[in-house]
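Bug #2210: C-alpha cell dump truncated for Transport permease protein?
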Amino acid sequence: MQGIFRSLWLYRFFIWTSIKNDFRARFVRSKLGGLWVILQPLSQVMIYAFILSNLLSNRLPGIDSTYGYAVYLMAGLLAWNLFTEIVDRCLKIFINNANTLKKVNFPRITLPVIAIGSALVNNLALFLVMNVIFLLLGHWVSGYLLYYFLLAPIVAAFAAGIGLLLGVINVFVRDTEQVVPIVLQVLFWFTPIVYPANVVPEAYQGLLGLSPLYVLVEAYHNIVLYHQPPHLMPIAVIAVMSALLCGFALVLFRKAGPDMVDAL
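Reproduced locally. Full output below:
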C-alpha cells in the first residue's frame, strides 16, 4: 500500500498535467468546448422540470419559489453526476488504456487517479456555473455552499472505491461494463433526485436512510436549496465507509495487478 502512495507522489506532475490536459481538451476539440460540462445536466433539468414541475413543486417542504423544483433537481444532479462520472471512468479505465498498459511502464494506479481528478474539476465547473444560474433565477446563495468542498471529496471517494473495484473486475469479466449502467439507472430512480423523499410511502422511507447516495444527495439539497448545514454524523459514517471501500479496492487492485496486463 505504501508503494502505491509513493508512486502517486513521484508521478504527481504527470497526474496534474493529465487532468489539466483533459479539461483543456474540452475547449479545444469542439466549438462549444467546456459548455458540454453543463449542457447535459441542464438539459436533464429542463426536461424533468417541464414535465414534473407542476406535479412536484408543491411537495417540496418550505419552498414556494417558482424555480424551487429546478434548483432541487440541479442540486441532486450535481451530486449524482459526480458519482456516476467517476464510476463510469474507473469502470472503463483499464480497458480503454489496454495498449498503454501493455507497452508503457508506469504506475497503473495513476489512471484512476487522473479520472477522479478530471471528474472533480468538471464537477467544480458545473457547481460554479449552477450558482450563477441560481442567482439569475432569483435563488440566493448562502455560506452553506462551502460544505460542497467537504461533500464533493466524500462523494468522489465513495464512487472511486466502487469504480476501482468494478474496473478491476471488468478486466476479467467484460459483462460488468454492460451491467453497471443498468444498475446505475435503477439507483437513479430509487434515489430522491427527480422527486422529493416525502412522496415515498412511509413504509419505505426508512429504507432510504440506508442508502449512502440518499444521504449524500440530501446533503446537497440542504446546502443548496434549504440553506442548511448537512447532517454531519451520517456524512462522517459514509466518509469512513468510503475510506474502507477505497482501501479494499486498492488491495484488490494491487493483488490483481500482475494478472491484469495478461487479461488485457
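Output looks complete on our side. Residues 37 and 122 are 6 Å apart (CA to CA). Marking as cannot-reproduce; reopen if the truncation happens again.
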